[in-house]
Amino acid sequence: MSRAFRAHARIWMVTVGAPFLAAGALFPVTHVAVGNTFFSPAVVTIYAGEQVQWSNTGGSHNARADDDLFQCSVDCISNNGVASGGWSSTFTFDSLENATNAGPVPYYCDNHGLPGGLGMTGVVIVQRAIFSDGFEGNDELEWSAGAAAGDTCANPIVPAIPAAALAGDLRGAKNDLDLTLNASCLSASAKGRDRVYQVVVGNGNVLTATVTPVSTGFDPAIYIVDLPSPAGACAFATYSCLGSSGHVNGPGGAETATFSNTSAAPRTVLVVVDSIAAAVAGSEYTIDLSVN
Prior knowledge:
The protein is mainly beta and 292 residues long. The chain has no helices and 20 strands.
């Protein structure tokens, strides 16, 4: 028996240009030049846990967060006032990993600016790779890169079938679908960010979808739902749960969902990779899709 559930409609602040991080790669460092009297680029976007490095190119400056999260010049270890010379210092934004709202972190130069965006100022926009508790229990103001393939049910990834070990990642994805709105389809909660794939299942065929986490700390879920109608109204659509698996093998374990098309015609469905709980060390995975 199919089960129906309704997706949450969300309002998101969207920022484009966050760095891509391949599975297994080290966190990148985003570089900001400090000059007379500017930060360049003035606005940068990173993920929580990544670093920003400020490098002075002339004059006497520092980089000081409006809320004093960091004060950087010759280093970011102590409260640093302005300094001249070719200093370079790096701050790691891991302290925001478990923040309720990471979002924008404005900063300024003590010598040429003031808090609140006055004078020589900049902004570090910190995106969380995945919600710290893995869930979305309210209307979050989290920042999201958005627009990437598979980010919503209206923009699914359409792989060639069969597909083996396709690399995927929940970093920067929105929360498009919440399968827990119908807990009878999935015994564990799955309300984190998700990635969406589209597959055509021929009549009489069986779709098998397996998600395998790269990180031992990532606890994924995978489920299959019908394509909403109309497809463009996915945020308000009612879906039927066709198959699912989550938390069966715990963090680091693969999860497999299947769907048997017993109808007389081919059926287009969505395969969704979701998250049961927080990714302790990343949300990278591989996905296998076959129709037989």
